[in-house]
Amino acid sequence: MNKVELAARFPVIKLGASCFANLSEERLKDLEAHKRQITFQKGDIISKQGTFAPSVMFVLDGFIKEYIEGNGGKNTNLRLVGKGDFVALSGLFNNKVSNYSVMALSQVTLCLFDREYLLQVIQENPDMSFQLIHRYSELENSFFSMLHSHLYKQMHGKMARTLLYLNSFNTADCNVFEFMNRKDIAEFASVSTENAIRVLKSFETDGLIEIRDKEIHILNENALENIFQRG
């Protein structure tokens, strides 16, 4: 089997994980042999905060959320992860204990790589290291933006940012909001569920969004962006 044929059947390459694209045919075959594929159902806890995290995961299909567990069931959602992205990437370079929990928001299929094995591959392939550092930098910038919103934005600004962020995961045949309840959305915005519902209703009244059962459709993206910028 040549490299093109192997890449065609290797899901992480087909889904755009560029860090694997320039690996040798021998290494791709080795990766294929070392990966494990597993499917989780909606609501399954994939990884628990405070437990050992021996694997780095890649999403082949579905949506998961990474979140920090707080007291009294008050959680903070860190990010949504969809098809074609890594989960628990920070675990490669930090300690082996997970700093957050991971839950399936829909049926999810993951590709798992052993942490120590993947570190070995990275050390032997500078291009892969560069690609992962680039992705890690993108995540860091996203977390800084989220932190700034949580600390300095008012409730409407927080909700506007959250809706725009989650909406970026939508496709022509998938509305990501159908996989989340209002509590999930509130925990992405760091507001109470009651306040999230109230703001969503006001956005709908103002013609900025349309709500159909669990689905939320953005009607005026520019207006939401202005609300976020004004805070």
UniProtKB/TrEMBL annotation:
Residues 19-139 form the Cyclic nucleotide-binding domain. The keyword ATP-binding does not apply. Keywords: DNA-binding, Transcription, Transcription regulation. One of its GO terms (cellular component) is cytosol. It holds the Pfam family HTH_Crp_2. It comes from the Bacteria. GO terms for molecular function: DNA binding; DNA-binding transcription factor activity. InterPro entries: cNMP-bd_dom (IPR000595), cNMP-bd_dom_sf (IPR018490), Env_Response_Regulators (IPR050397), HTH_CRP (IPR012318), RmlC-like_jellyroll (IPR014710), WH-like_DNA-bd_sf (IPR036388), WH_DNA-bd_sf (IPR036390). Residues 153-222 form the HTH crp-type domain. This is Transcriptional regulator, Crp/Fnr family. It comes from Bacteroides graminisolvens DSM 19988 = JCM 15093.
